[in-house]
Amino acid sequence: MDTETLHMEILASGADRWNAWRAKHLEIVPKLQGVALVNVDLAWADLRGLDLSTADLRQVNLSGADLRGANLQRGRLTEVNLSGADLGEANLREVEAIDSLAVGANLARAQGQGARLEGMDFGEANFASANFEGATLAWLRGERANLSGCRFDRTDLSGADLTGVRCKGATFVEANCRGACFWGADLTGTSFLAAEVGGANLQKATLIWADFKRALLTGADLRGCEAKEANLSEADCRGANLEGINLTGANLEWAILTGANLKNAIAIDAILAGANLRQACLVNGNFTGIKAANGLFDGTTLAGAQLIGADLRGADFRDTDWEAADLKGARLEGTKLRRSAPASPRTTTVEVPANKPLP
Questions:
Q1: Could you tell me which of 30, 20, 22 has the C-alpha nearest to residue 50?
Q2: What tens-digit pLDDT sequence spans the chain (359 residues)?
Q3: What is the pTM of this model?
Q4: Ramachandran area for residue 19 (φ above 0: left; ψ -120 to 50: alpha; else beta)
Q5: What is the Cα–Cα distance from 153 to 147, expressed in whole angstroms?
C-alpha cells in the first residue's frame, strides 16, 4: 500500500484512529489532496494544516474538528457538520458547502473568496477578519455571529438571516443583501457602499457611522435604527420605512426618499441638500437644523414636524402639508411654497426676505 493510500485509509477509519496515528507521526505530512470520504465520523479530528484541497467530504461529521490553517480549496462539504469546528485561517476558497451546519464554528481570518455556502447555518460562529469576497451565502443563517472586520464585498447574501450579528468594521461593498435580515445587528462603521439592500430588515440595528452611499434600500425596513452620522448620500430609499430612526448628523445629500416613511424620525443637523422627499411622510419628526437646500419636498407631509433653524433655501415645498409644523428661524429664500403656506401660528416666525415674495 502506497503512502497516500495509507493516509486516506487511516482517515476513513474515523477520528480516534486518525488522531492516535497523527500523535505518533508528527514528522509526517499526510497526503490527502482529493480524498473522497462520504458519511465518515471525524468529530474532533486533528486536521491542522493539512492539504485537503478538492476533497469530497459530503455528509462527513467534522464537529469540533481542528482545521486551523487547513487547505480546503475547491472541496465539497455539502451537508457536513462543522459545528464547533476550528477553521481559523483555513483556505476555503471556492469551497462548496451547501446546507451544511457550522453553529459556533471559528472562521476567524479564514479565506473564503468565491465559496458557495448557500443555506448554511453559522449561528453564533466567529468570522472575525475573515474574507468571503465574491462568495455565495444566499439564505445563510448566522444569528448572533461575529462578523467584525469581515469582508463580504460583492458577496451574495440575499435572504440571509443575520439577526443580532456583530459587524463592526465589516464591508459589504456592492454586496447583494436583498431581503436579508439584520434585525438588531451592530453595524457600527460597516460599509454597504453601492450595495443592494432592497427589502432588507434592519429594524433596531445600530448604523452609527455606517456607509450606505449609493446603496439601494428600496422598501427596506429601518424602523427604530440608530444611524447617527451615517452616510446615506445618493442612496435610493424609495418606499423605505424609517419610522423613529435616529439620523442625527447623518449625510443624506442627494438621497432618494420618495414615498419613504420618516414619521417620528430624528434628523437633527442632518444633511439633505438636494434630497428627494416627494410624497414622503415626516409627521412629528425632529428635523431641527437640517441642511436641505434645493431639496424636493413637494407633496410631502410635514404635519407637526420641527424644522427650527433649518436651511431650506431653494427647496420645493409645493402642495406640502405642514400643518402645525415649527419653522422658527428657518431659511426659505427662493423656496417654492405654492399652496403650502404654513397655517399654524407656530410657523409665523419664518423669515422670508422681502424681495422673495411667496408665490
A1: 30
A2: 678 889 999 999 999 999 999 999 989 989 899 999 989 999 999 999 999 999 999 999 999 999 999 999 999 999 999 999 999 999 999 999 999 999 999 999 999 999 999 999 999 999 999 999 999 999 999 999 999 999 999 999 999 999 999 999 999 999 999 999 999 999 999 999 999 999 999 999 999 999 999 999 999 999 999 999 999 999 999 999 999 999 999 999 999 999 999 999 999 999 999 999 999 999 999 999 999 999 999 999 999 999 999 999 999 999 999 889 999 999 999 998 765 445 443 443 343 443 343 33
A3: 0.92
A4: alpha
A5: 13
